[in-house]
Amino acid sequence: MQKLFVALLILSLSACGGNSATADGEAAPKAGSPEEAEQALYQKAVDAHDEVMPKYFSIEQVSQKIFDFQTKAELNQEQKSQIVLVAKALDDANDGMMDWMGKIAGNEPENLRESKSHEEIMAFWQSMDAEMTEVKRKMDESLALGEELLQKIDQANK
User: Fold this and answer.
1) What is the pLDDT of residue 6?
2) Nearest residue to 33 (alpha-carbon basis) of 110, 115, 128
3) Are the C-beta atoms of residues 40 and 77 closer than 8 Å to each other?
């Protein structure tokens, strides 16, 4: 179910990017306007998401391989402890992506303009951009840890 949600969210975010009109068919914001600044910051955050999202699926694959090792291989206590730590890091990284997507759902600039000021919209999207930077860092780190652990366990079990 979670994978279906992710796939649908990816499709909806992909559909939002690059349009010269808003979702309701209005013309794109005028150059230099507050709306243009909001849309640019929104697009920056979504572009960062689009760059990082493929790692979500890589993390899922590494997590599955680690789980397979955990259930099929004979592991020493150190390996078991490492698996627990790395599996948690991988899960936390992917949870960070899911949390981020949940926060932005329905919060496109044109929707926020109904109830928020320009400053509030900019602050929201600045925080979402910063949060995506952190999500990326966690995903990169956990993926590297997972791949390194898989290599170690694989070599130890040969």
Assistant:
1) 44
2) 110
3) no
